[in-house]
Design goal:
Blueprint: H1 2-15, H2 17-26, H3 32-39, H4 45-53, E1 60-62, E2 64-67, E3 70-73, E4 82-85, E5 96-104, E6 110-115, E7 131-135, E8 140-143, E9 149-150, E10 160-165, E11 171-172, E12 180-188, E13 191-199, E14 206-211, E15 216-224, H5 229-234, E16 243-247, E17 249-252, E18 255-258, E19 269-273, E20 283-291, E21 297-302, E22 318-322, E23 327-330, E24 336-337, E25 347-353, E26 359-360, E27 371-372, H6 394-400, E28 403-415, E29 418-428, E30 433-438, E31 443-448
Antiparallel strand pairs: 1-4, 2-3, 3-15, 4-14, 5-10, 5-15, 6-7, 6-14, 7-8, 8-9, 10-12, 11-12, 12-13, 16-19, 17-18, 18-31, 19-30, 20-25, 20-31, 21-22, 21-30, 22-23, 23-24, 25-28, 26-27, 28-29
Protein name: SPRY domain-containing protein 3
Organism: Zootermopsis nevadensis (Dampwood termite)
Domain B30.2/SPRY: 33-227
């Protein structure tokens, strides 16, 4: 009987230290050395699990530097794999995410996928239990340490790897009521690569990224709703009313595709929005879906009657940032060094910083209207150069006086959400219209004319 009583404190110590202390006081006949030994016992594993579950709302990471949505490899002295695990698992309401490769680093070793919170923080996603991951350096899929299945070629800067769960196709365990199988799918640049059934671990599957390539960097896009690229390209009747003219460019939903010959600079394709930027809608973006043969893609602002076969920035009354060489063009065919070149997957943005006292009176179609402003604090910025050139609209410029010189604004450009630079320019009468130019075969961009308005 006494031996049975000695077992009771041990069992209770595995469940609750507080009950154990109470029992120690009640059962004083138990030898002190025995009680000291019980004090040194490790807690029951369930207690450790409760502690780790309480931290599930936190991001887990080792050897990964965080800068907002950007993740970069931060090796220590042993150069082990760095791993990031998101704060929340995928759910039916947030069932998909993407990681865009900003820099592949020295060898491109980046893994993207899903794992449980119990996965080690020093192994690539897919190389440990309760994980599945896609390796960008070789285009292979790994599941819980498997040898890997080839899905595609090596990924490069600008590629976006997506991963999600098809919760509408969840399978309850066959023969095991505690096992749930979920279809996990991977996509590359909007095209689905594979769907794989995976056992759903306790606590769920979390977005995760692994890296061991010096200089490697990705940007995370969590909580997305994935729409296959094919579905996007089929929605041809959704956004046509937003465009004033499309010259040698075909519209498919939000995607613009170059359809010109692409043989000389006279073959530029131009897409110009119907309405100019204003104090409500002052910024727009494009994403390079396909750079085509040469990535002759430009984003910028132009006057209403801009020549239809000129890149934004090449002619008077325009400014443009060009993806192929990173130069900025301001009313001239000669550009200046400005920012980095842009590639597949990069997002290029353009906007106007309107002063607080700026009054915009454009009509709904972007027609001419009076504007007034008294901008301050911009004297040190570059102004729009109105030098002579052989552009095809020279006669228009000299005869129409198409600039309202009383209105100067700061036009800025971004790349992947980061500021590239800005220039101060004169606003043409009637306003500045969002414009995209393209010049090489198979070029495609996805446009968002209102990314900041929800």
């Amino acid at each position: 009987m006494y031996g049975g009583i000695k077992c009771v404190p041990y069992m209770l110590s595995c469940v609750s230290p507080h009950l154990f202390e109470l029992l120690k006081n009640l059962f004083c006949p138990v030898h002190d050395t025995t009680m000291e030994g019980l004090h040194n016992l490790q807690p029951y594993p369930v207690l450790r699990m409760k502690c780790s579950m309480s931290r599930d709302t936190d991001i887990s990471h080792e050897r990964i530097a965080l800068d907002g949505d950007f993740l970069s490899y931060a090796p220590n002295e042993d150069d082990r794999v760095g791993v990031y695990i998101a704060a929340h698992p995928l759910t039916p309401d947030m069932c998909y995410y993407e990681a865009e490769i900003i820099d592949t680093g020295t060898d491109g070793s980046i893994s993207v996928g899903l794992c449980s919170k119990r996965c080690p923080l020093d192994a690539h996603i897919g190389c440990a239990t309760e994980s599945i991951g896609f390796m960008t350096e070789c285009g292979r899929l790994y599941k819980e340490g498997s040898r890997g299945t080839q899905l595609c070629i090596r990924c490069d800067c600008g590629d976006r790897i997506g991963c999600g769960i098809k919760f509408d196709q969840v399978l309850e365990g066959r023969g095991d009521p505690f096992c749930t199988m979920v279809p996990v799918y991977f996509a590359r640049n909007g095209k689905e690569l594979v769907t794989e059934l995976v056992s759903l671990p306790s606590g769920g599957l979390y977005p995760a990224v692994g890296m061991d390539s010096v200089g490697g960097e990705v940007k995370l896009f969590l909580g997305l709703n994935w729409v296959p690229e094919e579905d996007s390209l089929m929605s041809v009747d959704t956004n046509e009313e937003e465009w004033y003219r499309l010259s040698d460019i075909q519209l498919n939903g939000q995607v613009l595709e170059y359809t010109g010959r692409g043989k000389s600079i006279k073959d530029v394709g131009l897409a110009q929005a119907r309405s100019p930027l204003n104090t409500t809608v002052h910024y727009f973006e494009i994403e390079i879906v396909d750079p085509g043969e040469s990535c002759y893609i430009a984003i910028g602002l132009t006057r209403r009657d801009y020549p239809k076969h000129r890149h934004p920035g090449w002619s008077k009354g325009s400014i443009g940032y060009h993806a192929d060489d990173g130069k900025i063009f301001i009313g001239s065919g000669v550009g200046d060094p400005f920012g980095p070149r842009c590639h597949k997957g990069d997002r290029m943005g353009c906007g106007i910083l309107f002063p607080r006292d700026y009054v915009c009176q454009y009509d709904s179609d972007g027609g001419s209207g009076e504007v007034s402003s008294s901008p301050t604090g911009m004297d040190n910025l570059l102004e729009l150069t109105l030098d002579t050139s052989d552009s095809e609209d020279e006669d228009w410029w000299n005869s129409q006086c198409g600039i309202e010189h009383s209105s100067k604004m700061k036009v800025f450009f971004t790349r992947n959400g980061k500021m590239v630079g800005a220039r101060q320019v004169c606003i043409p009468k009637g306003g500045f219209f969002p414009t995209i130019g393209m010049l090489s075969m198979q070029e495609k961009v996805r446009v968002d004319l209102r990314p900041l308005t929800g």
